[in-house]
Structure formats: C-alpha cells, structure tokens
Task: inverse folding
C-alpha cells in the first residue's frame, strides 16, 4: 500500500489527486491519501482511502495524528510527500515502519523565500542557506525525487546523487477531450489560481479600467482563494473605487473538475504575474489549461511562459498596467482560431499527463522491486 500525504493543498489538487493518485489506482495500487483542508469532500473509492483532517489543526498536530495511524499499519511500503513541511514527519515514518520516501518537489523554495520574505538581503540569504541545509539533511532519508519543473534547483539534487524524475503539470486528457473552442462569451477574460500581490491581481484590475473604455462589454472573472484577508479587502476596495463591480466578479476556489467549464466559456485566459524570483522559475499550470480550453493567452513576459510551443501567445511587460491593458484589448480584437486550434491539438498530442504518466508507474515499480 502507498501513503500520499499533503498538508497545504486542496484534496482535489490536480497534480496530486487527478493526475498522480488516479494513475496509481489505474496501475492497480492501493492508496491511503491524507489531507489537511477546509474542503470536506471525501474522495474515497475503489482502492483509495481518503482521510481529511481540519486545517484548524497545526501541521505538527496533523502529522502526529497521521503518524499514529500509519504506525499501526505495516502495510505502507511507500510514503509520497508533497511539501517540505513534512520532512520531519517523513523521517519519523521511515524510522517506525521502514517505508521508502518519494519527495515530490513542486517549487523552488529558495525562490519562495526570496519572493515572500520581508527581511533584508542578508537575513534572506541566511534563511535560504538554512532551508537548503535542512533539505540536504532530509535527502539522506529520501529514496526518489520528483520535480514539477526542470528549472527547480533547491539544494541541487544531481550533485547529491539523485536523478530527479521530471513530471510537469500537464492536464489529463480526461478533462480536455470534449472542450470546444466555439463556446465563448464575447470579450470575457478569466484568471484562476491564488489571489495574491505577486500574482499581479491589482495590476490586472487597474488594467481592466482602461480595457472597459475601449471595449465596454469586456468582463473579468477571478476564481481562487485570497492568500490574506488584508489583500482581499484591498482588492475589493480598488474594485469599488474604480466602479468596476459590474465587469469584475470574484469567485471562491472551485473544484478542479468544475473549472474546465469556466475556461471553456471564456475568450481570454490571463496570467498577470509580477516579476520576482518565483515567477521567473515556476511554470504556471494554467498556461496548459488555457491552451486546452481554446483561450487566447495573455501573460507576463517571463521565461517560463516561453519554454513551450504555443501559437499566438500575447506577452506584456510584467507589472506594467498600460502594457497589460493594451495587450488585452488587442487580444480581444485579434483572435486567430487557427492558433487556438493549434494549441489545443498540441495539448492533445504532447503536453498532456497521459503522455508522461507511465514514468510515475515505472518509478513505483522500481522502488517496490
């Protein structure tokens, strides 16, 4: 049996649940899936036991409860973790039951520290080095590493004898096979994901004021959870001050299976990220989702956006409200269906999870052999 554990992601996370766990189930593996979330939907089914704990528990309290449950079972052969907050927990599991550890790396964490820490450069550098030291110590107990992007460096896994398995965040064909490009709301724009300052949400809202002057029926739908209450209040105040309530709508996070219908309905998919250490490295999953749903893509002119074969990609200067508004206006006026069809076919032929999912099964077979 396999134990998959997350302490910060939604249970229906597209990478963890919809791609990896479903692939393992199809491969005949039995999985115990532990999550810590406000979302109470139970995902248990044939071969899958989903146990969710309230996110009112601290990560320490949560992992103690999971460790206690896992310790009572000798059936767990592999522990698959998805956050560095689970380092100590994973080591304890290995000590107690001898399970092998898969470390699934979603982000370049020194870049996260550099982006979000408010300390000066000296203290930031110390925090980065300390995090890298912690990871290196943890890697002594790790059996395999999976990375979500080739740009992730962290403590340099290859120098420590690992050959990380690259599993990019490509969408599953299950969700994209029936999407239609023709079902679009005229002049509609969509963003989905975390709502936070580094994502360029404020700049996007301000850009919409200029877009509306040129295209009065343009609309923007924002789907996702706010990282902080203060930022949510700030966003709402700006929308009210600019009198944009009729054209900008805020929606809470919705299940991954439901976001596809929303993407299918919108003309423009926007990725308005500001330029920082994190966005210069991480490839946003939504760029592939926009391609699959036939959305015209408007995104910041950052390196990750240009790693793939995408037709008609519209780039703007990161953080520049005027540049963003101009590109949005131009994109709504000049959409090439030929480019949209090319992008959708590219997802179906190359940039999909089904093309790479066998690598995950091979890794598990290797560990269990």
Result:
């Amino acid at each position: 049996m396999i134990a998959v554990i997350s302490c910060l992601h939604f249970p229906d996370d597209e990478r963890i649940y919809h791609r990896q766990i479903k692939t393992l189930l199809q491969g005949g593996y039995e999985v115990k899936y532990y999550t810590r979330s406000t979302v109470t939907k139970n995902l248990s089914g044939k071969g899958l036991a989903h146990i969710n704990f309230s996110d009112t528990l601290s990560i320490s309290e949560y992992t103690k409860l999971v460790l206690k449950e896992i310790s009572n079972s000798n059936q767990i052969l592999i522990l698959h973790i998805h956050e560095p907050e689970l380092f100590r927990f994973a080591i304890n599991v290995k000590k107690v039951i001898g399970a092998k550890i898969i470390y699934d790396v979603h982000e370049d964490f020194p870049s996260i520290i550099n982006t979000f820490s408010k300390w000066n450069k000296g203290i930031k550098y110390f925090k980065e080095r300390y995090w890298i030291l912690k990871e290196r110590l943890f890697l002594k107990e790790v059996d395999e590493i999976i990375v979500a992007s080739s740009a992730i460096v962290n403590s340099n896994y290859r120098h420590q004898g690992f050959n990380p398995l690259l599993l990019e965040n490509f969408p599953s064909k299950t969700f994209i096979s029936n999407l239609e490009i023709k079902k679009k709301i005229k002049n509609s724009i969509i963003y989905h994901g975390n709502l936070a300052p580094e994502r360029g949400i404020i700049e996007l809202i301000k850009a919409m004021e200029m877009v509306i002057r040129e295209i009065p029926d343009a609309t923007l739908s924002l789907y996702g959870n706010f990282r902080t209450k203060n930022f949510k209040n700030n966003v709402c105040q700006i929308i009210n001050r600019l009198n944009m309530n009729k054209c900008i709508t805020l929606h809470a996070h919705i299940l991954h299976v439901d976001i596809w219908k929303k993407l299918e309905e919108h003309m423009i998919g926007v990725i308005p990220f500001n330029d920082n250490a994190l966005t210069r490295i991480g490839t946003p999953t939504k760029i592939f989702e926009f391609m699959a749903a036939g959305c015209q893509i408007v995104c910041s002119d950052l390196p990750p956006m240009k790693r793939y074969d995408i037709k008609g990609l519209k780039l703007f200067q990161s953080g520049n409200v005027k540049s963003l508004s101009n590109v949005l206006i131009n994109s709504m006026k000049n959409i090439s269906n030929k480019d949209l069809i090319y992008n959708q076919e590219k997802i179906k032929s190359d940039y999909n999870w089904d093309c790479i999912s066998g690598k995950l099964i091979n890794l598990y077979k290797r560990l269990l052999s």
Q: What stands out?
A: The first helix runs from residue 14 to 26. The two ends are 14 Å apart (CA to CA). The chain has a mean pLDDT of 95.
